[in-house]
Write a structure and sequence with these properties.
Number of helices of chain A: 2
Radius of gyration of chain A: 17 Å
Number of domains of chain B: 2
Structural class of chain A: mainly beta
Helix content of chain B: 25-40%
Oligomer: heterodimer
Mean pLDDT of chain B: 92
Strand order of the largest sheet of chain B: 7-6-5-8-9
Largest sheet of chain A: 5 strands, antiparallel
Helix content of chain A: 10-25%
CATH architecture of the largest domain in chain B: 3-Layer(aba) Sandwich
Strand content of chain B: 15-25%
Distance between the termini of chain B: 12 Å
Low-confidence stretches of chain B: none
Order of helices and strands of chain B: HEHEHEHEHEHEHEEHHEH
Strand order of the largest sheet of chain A: 2-3-1-4-5
Shape of chain B: globular
Number of strands of chain A: 9
Chain lengths: 143, 309
């Protein structure tokens, strides 16, 4: 049995659907962090059967919106002195900025560096459909 | 209600009360232009036109000059610092030192919104790609009010390019906010109104929308017929454009079936969607509409500059 110890300070992203762990790791660019990061894949889980987990030591400043776009079942645990001090369930973000491109080739955000793409969620049965704040076209987020 | 200093990017930036304020001042200006000839004396309009548009640009310039103001600007991105690679934000920051109000046309959708985020003086969207064109909408509303005396209880048919036509989108969204407006949308199936726009106006305003591909089917039953051109510049393929461009041509024969009090509108320029013989029909008001557009823009600029009264 592989054993990974808990972290004393930092963040644990738990209940990640198997396969999403690596996607989150890449999107958050965790390989660039100058701290200990653990990606556990296919861990036994009572609720999910199997799950992925990410543990980041001494760092909590991650973009929660990205998590909401990839895996809405994940939970975020903030750890201090080896104890969980807060537990948050990830939600689909209502507003996102700079995380993906507008699909409209005529949108100003596709050509002007000052125009950072910004979107507002269009409620549609759990689909990740976002209206561009600049051109109003709808883009469906796909990883 | 205070319009002074506002940016006008989308007609929805204006409440119905503010729209009515602009419309009423525009009609007062039309009735007595001399009274307003020095209203914007000392004010400078900057026209930043990143793509050609003779009509909108001249209309804005004429509007400012008629109120005693001055005009600076460019009418083609090729002749401006844009060609050297200057971004919108930098251009706007610089122009803020030269003018009191900006009107911007840009082929990129959302460009005027970006401009407004870097501007301390009012920015008016003079058309951004296939997206919004709020002053055309104001012109349309002024025209409807002038000829129909009120903006309510109207069945309006809009014909042509409903997918890319910026005038149409803006008009649909804005008219939906007025009481008891019914739309008949006539277009080839390839150029139907975008789903998101249709869904949002039905959801927000509960308006009646009937979609058809036949102009003849409904011409006898509407108060206003708003024709639009199939815009070549919005197509990626020449073949697609050629296939659709002659879909709807309004002729005197078709107009025989329309009401006697029909108001026939067109945002101009037309290509061939209204035959020239229709111009002498007393119901054809598109050239008057262009004239009213100057008053609409005068009124809007005066109010944004705090000079409306």
């Amino acid at each position: 049995m592989l054993k990974v110890t808990g972290i004393t300070q930092g963040i644990v992203i738990d209940h990640i659907k198997t396969g999403n762990g690596l996607k989150i790791f890449n999107k958050l660019r965790l390989d660039k962090l100058d701290t200990t990061v653990v990606l556990l894949m296919n861990v036994d889980s009572k609720a999910l059967g199997r799950k992925d987990i990410i543990k980041i030591q001494d760092y909590t400043d991650i973009n929660i919106d990205i998590l909401g776009l990839i895996d809405q079942n994940a939970t975020i645990n903030i750890i201090k002195n080896s104890k969980i001090i807060s537990k948050t369930k990830v939600e689909i973000p209502k507003k996102v900025k700079g995380l993906f491109q507008c699909k409209n080739p005529r949108c100003v955000t596709t050509v002007d560096n000052y125009a950072i793409s910004e979107f507002t969620l269009v409620p549609n049965e759990g689909k990740l459909q976002y209206r561009c704040n600049y051109c109003e076209e709808i883009t469906e987020y796909k990883l | 209600m205070k319009l002074q200093g506002k940016h006008i990017i989308d007609a929805s930036d204006l409440s119905v009360g503010e729209l009515n304020l602009i419309i009423d001042l525009a009609l007062r200006m039309r009735a007595n232009i001399e009274e307003f000839s020095e209203l914007c004396k000392g004010k400078i309009l900057a026209t930043l036109f990143y793509e050609p548009s003779t009509r909108t640009r001249l209309s804005f310039e004429s509007a400012m000059l008629k109120m005693g103001g001055s005009v600076i600007g460019f009418s083609d991105a090729e002749t401006s610092s844009v060609k050297k690679g200057e971004n919108i934000a930098d251009t706007i920051r610089v122009v803020n030192n030269y003018a009191n109000i900006i009107v911007m046309r840009h082929p990129r959708e959302g460009a005027p919104l970006l401009a407004s985020q870097y501007s301390e003086i009012p920015v008016i969207n003079g058309g951004d790609g296939g997206h919004q064109h709020p002053t055309q909408t104001l012109t349309d509303l002024v025209t409807i009010k002038y000829y129909k005396e009120h903006i309510k209880d109207i069945k309006i048919a809009i014909c042509g390019d409903l997918l890319f036509g910026r005038s149409v989108h803006s008009l649909l969204k804005t008219l939906s906010r007025y009481p008891n407006i019914e739309f008949v949308l006539i277009s080839p199936s390839e150029l139907r109104i975008p789903h998101h726009l249709k869904d949002s106006i039905i959801e927000e305003h509960n308006v009646k929308i009937y979609e058809t591909t036949s102009l003849e089917e409904c011409i006898n039953d509407v108060n206003v017929l708003y024709m639009t051109r199939i815009q070549k510049e919005r197509f990626f393929s020449e073949d697609e454009y050629i296939k659709l461009k002659d879909s709807y041509i309004l002729t005197p024969e078709k107009l025989k079936y329309a009401r006697k009090d029909l108001l026939l509108m067109h945002p101009l320029p037309r290509v061939n969607e209204i035959s020239y013989e229709v111009d002498i029909d007393p119901r054809a008001k598109y050239f008057e509409q262009a004239k009213l557009g100057v008053f609409a823009r005068m009124s809007l600029m005066a109010l944004l500059l705090g000079r409306g009264c």
